[in-house]
Specification:
Number of strands: 18
Radius of gyration: 22 Å
Bound molecules: flavin-adenine dinucleotide
Structural class: alpha+beta
Number of helices: 15
Length: 467
């Protein structure tokens, strides 16, 4: 073990847990130290799999008493890899998967270890859902604490707009309930401020009736990407909140339904989800299904849970991932020209570029109403670079950096905290927004003055700048 932890202390800690403690050398250690992004290769000294909030309290108290660097992991999907660490302890909540759906109040009390696939399964059994991630293995915890953008956001707000309350363990091992009635200052900060203030053990969400949706993907020839983007810009200016869309450029399409496009050819695509009467949706979606003309139209009525797994195969674990993201206020012809020039020089066949349209209910909430901000953005640009051979890393990373730099003049200057990698303090400040940052720093001073929870997009308590 890379630190001065006696075997005796570790054994005592292990025995005190209802869950499991995994150490280097244990048979589950090598899988236990992995996260979704294959680039992350860290070696913690302890992995504490908690099964209840008591375990979380014990793990926090142990880590604090022993002065351990502490990482917190739920779904393990964050691309930055802060959910694991070298030498310290990983407090893992992935085994905490209880969910209680209340159909009368239309709420769900969900433990932090659930993925969106598990959450959607439980809520859709009774015809309910809330805004969640678009890939089913993503954890509800990290996603909710950073904001949460997904197919339902234009109608029902981002995920944290639907967060009614949470139970959180502080750095001192205290359990707090956080809501509009208790610890209101923290309720403001938790909704967008990430894991900076403590470990959330469970979340209470507002749910909505969601029946089958009219959803899927329309594919277009890659050579028409600029034309499709110009169409997309004009189209999204007119659409109702019931319709959420995302433009995607993929270096190599792999859709089995794409009969007219050889596997491995590049393609442009628009993913859609209409939550409302299908007959109305069909009418509104007609332009998307006619422009181009499309190579393939895979839009149909489907259960919401099917939509929520539709993109899973494009985001498998263990690949190397390097992302760059920013918010765009407009999609000008100049921006489209830069986008398409980088589409044409994409270095990896696994890469994708996403433009996810926001607006609707996202924009109707003020930037100061909670920590999650940048609500005036038109869309989130995400350059999702992926590859499998580590010898190629430099080439792919450089292309991604160049692309992001070329797009900077079109950005609002903001970035979604949940898409950030390890990008330095300026980007962290940009993610929280200059207006909200001082309020978040004040909360950090109040709830975590020693910066015990520092493995995240870190809000620095005052006097702790030197970390
Ligand atoms: C394939 C893929 C698809 C995605 N799709 C979307 C999407 O559709 N919409 C969207 O908004 N985002 C999306 N994301 C980004 C996602 O929101 C973040 O990666 C998020 O952090 C994932 O949460 P997690 O619990 O899986 O992460 P983890 O890696 O487990 O945690 C991330 C960080 O959150 C903090 N944290 C985790 N658990 C807790 C807890 N219980 N209490 C306090 N802090 C905690 C820690 O700081 C940790 O480092 C996607 C990511 C991937 C890889």
């Amino acid at each position: 073990m890379g630190m001065n932890l006696s075997k005796n202390l570790t054994t005592k800690f292990r025995d005190s847990l209802h869950g499991t403690l995994v150490l280097p050398g244990d048979k589950d250690y090598d899988t236990g130290r992995r996260v979704w992004n294959g680039m992350i290769d860290k070696h913690p000294s302890l992995i504490a799999y908690c099964v209840d909030s008591g375990d979380v309290i014990k793990a926090v108290n142990f880590a604090r008493a022993q002065g351990l660097l502490t990482a917190v992991r739920s779904g393990g999907h964050n691309v930055a890899g802060n959910a694991v660490c070298d030498d310290g302890i990983v407090i893992d909540l992935s085994r905490m998967k209880q969910i209680d759906v209340n159909t009368a109040s239309r709420t769900a009390l969900a433990q932090a270890g659930l993925t969106w696939g598990e959450f959607d399964h439980a809520t859709q059994t009774v015809g309910l859902a809330t805004t969640g991630g678009i890939v089913s293995r993503t954890g509800i915890a990290g996603l909710t604490l950073g904001g949460g953008i997904g197919w339902l956001m234009r109608k029902f707000g981002v995920t944290c707009d639907n967060l009614l309350s949470a139970n959180m363990i502080t750095a001192e091992g205290q359990r707090l309930t956080v809501s509009g009635y208790e610890n209101q200052d923290l309720y403001w900060g938790l909704r967008g401020g990430g894991g900076n203030f403590g470990i959330v053990t469970d979340f209470e969400y507002r749910l909505h009736h969601i029946g089958p949706v009219l959803a899927g993907t329309v594919y277009y020839p890659a050579a028409k990407a600029a034309e499709i983007l110009r169409f997309y810009r004009d189209y999204i200016a007119e659409i109702p909140d019931e319709l959420a869309t995302m433009f995607v450029y993929m270096a190599a399409s792999r859709s089995p339904s794409l009969a007219r496009l050889p596997v491995g050819s590049p393609a442009a695509a628009i993913h859609v989800c209409y939550v409302g009467a299908a007959a109305v949706g069909e009418k509104i979606l007609r332009p998307v299904r006619e422009v181009g003309p499309p190579l393939e139209d895979a839009v149909r009525i489907m259960p919401y849970v099917e939509l929520q797994t539709m993109l899973d195969s494009s985001a498998p674990p263990n690949q190397y991932n390097f992302w760059k993201s920013s918010y765009l206020a407009h999609l000008t012809d100049e921006a489209i020209a830069v986008l398409t020039s980088y589409f044409n020089t994409m270095t990896s066949p696994l890469s994708q570029v996403h433009l996810q349209h926001l607006e609707g209910q996202v924009r109707r909430v003020g930037d100061d109403e909670m920590a999650f901000s940048h609500r005036n953005a038109l869309c989130a640009l995400n350059i999702v670079t992926k590859w499998e051979d580590p010898r190629e890393s430099e080439k792919h990373i450089q292309w991604t950096r160049d692309f992001e730099a070329a797009m900077r003049t079109f950005s609002t200057g903001g970035v979604y905290v949940n898409f950030l990698g390890e990008e330095g303090e300026d980007r962290v400040t940009a993610a929280y927004g200059r207006a909200n940052y001082p309020r978040l720093a004040a909360l950090k001073n109040k709830f975590d003055p020693t910066n015990f929870f520092r493995l995240n997009q870190n809000i620095k308590p005052s006097g702790q700048e030197a970390f």
